[in-house]
Amino acid sequence: MNNKQNINEVDAEFGIDSRYKTNDERKQDAIDLMQARLDRLKNLSNEQTLRAKLLQLKLQMENYLHQPINDHKNHFSYFLEKYIDIIYSKRIDFARDMNVSANFLSKIINNHREPREEFILKLMIHSEKVFENVGEFSKKIWYLVYFQEKLYDAMSRQDTWRPEIEKQIRIPKLMDT
User: Fold this and answer.
1) Dihedral through CA 155, CA 156, CA 158, CA 161, nearest 10?
2) Domains in the chain: boundaries
3) DSSP run (H or E) holding 55
4) Of the four listed, 40, 51, 61, 148, which is most buried by Cβ atoms within 10 Å?
5) CB 174 within 8 A of CB 91
6) Other beta carbons within 10 Å of 130
7) 54: Cβ–Cβ under 8 A, 6 or more apart, which residues?
């Protein structure tokens, strides 16, 4: 493969036109492109920025639900924290809007307490209303994130809970072997 083909492949990854005569031209164009992106971001309204962040969070949550889980990170609290921080400047305002104590909310975010069903129901309605003018948001996504995490946690700890649980159950003999 010659050098021109090499440059085309590398530059395509970054979305930069690869028809440059010199490396300096390519670098300058990359700088200009980044500056144009930054200028465009600066000119976005607060509403456009909020909309973009909410859509990004939605896509991250949907992606999480479609990927195999391979870490022990508490994704529910991570997404909850991100959701709150996108919309509110103070978490206490979110707690007030959800009619829960700031202490209760802090314990959920910091993984010291499991969210109650009522809290997830409130969160479901809250996010449904927030996303009303942003885009489609699945009503069940908070439940799906929460229960996928619980399922992974239970399955990854089978060696600790399974021996004791197996002692407590009986299986009827259904077929001769």
Assistant:
1) -100
2) 3-42, 46-167
3) helix 46-66
4) 61
5) no
6) 15
7) 86, 87, 130, 131, 134, 135
Residue 14 is predicted with a pLDDT of: 57
pLDDT confidence of residue 1:
47
**Looking at residue 97, what DSSP letter applies?**
H
d(CA 53, CA 45): 12
51: exposed, middle or buried (C-beta count within 10 Å: 0-12, 13-18, 19+)? middle
Residue 152 burial by Cβ neighbours in a 10 Å radius (0-12, 13-18, 19+): middle
Tell me, yes or no, if the pTM score tops 0.70. no
Instruction: Print burial letters for 5-40: b (CB count within 10 Å at least 16), e (below 16).
Output: eebeeebeeeebebeeeeeeebeebeeeeeeeeeee
Can you tell me the distance from the alpha carbon of 32 to that of 30, in angstroms, rounded to the nearest whole number?
5
Ranges under pLDDT 50 in the chain? 1, 6-9
Both tokens of 87, joined, read 């919309």
Neighbours of 64 (CB within 10 A): 19
